[in-house]
Amino acid sequence: DARTNSLGMINLVNKKMNLYDIPTPNSAVMGITLSPDNKSIWFAEIIGDNIGNFNIDTKKIIEYPTGKSSGPTLLTFDDDGILWGSLSYSNEVLRIEPWALIPGIEFNGMLKSKLKEPDMYSPFGLSIVNNNSNINNTLFVSDHGSSRIIAIPVYNQNILNEEILNYTSYWTSPSNNFPNTLPSEIVSDKKGNIYFAEHGGNRIAKFAPDTKTMTEYEIPTGPLATTGFVALSTDNTKIWFTEWASNNIGF
Asked: How far apart are alpha carbons 240 and 238 in whole angstroms?
């Protein structure tokens, strides 16, 4: 809850809701994700410049700084337990080893990566796709400063450097109402297909990595419903999305 600067937990049995204050004032909490062991919630503070951890049992919150004006936005775990985050303000992707983090110590257990200059991006959504070869996974990142998503192969020589040397950009079609389509949150299904919202393009898009095919679907409410966040249904049949400007939930 960004307005109250807290994390909320709802008990669906007794309908009771509790809010837990985030230690950093006005942190502007954004993305949250459940840890692989189901014991904690990790969250990003886009104004507070922290990655936070909420222990579900003890209700304790620990924060880890990501650097001044870095703007951590959304988070996702890969199959190896690595936590990935987008740093929208500093134009970097953050790779986190949760077991190596030390509270209050900047960058311990963290590695930041930019695109090779002069290219740059404003990362927002992230999703790890397994290519089923057990060799390399691919990190898909949305560029909320342009009209593309970026595929980054995850192997040590590529991702453990300050500059990402090997990546591929996949561009959306031009927006009719806005200079850029501003791809936002990304999710992937069990087949490895990528789905994302186009904040400025007013569309929901699907990208199939195996055929390199992108399909875009116009959102009925226009010209700009301002969709930003998406979620995949548990049966892999629907993409749910939010519309900030028109007060709708759609699928």
From this structure: 6
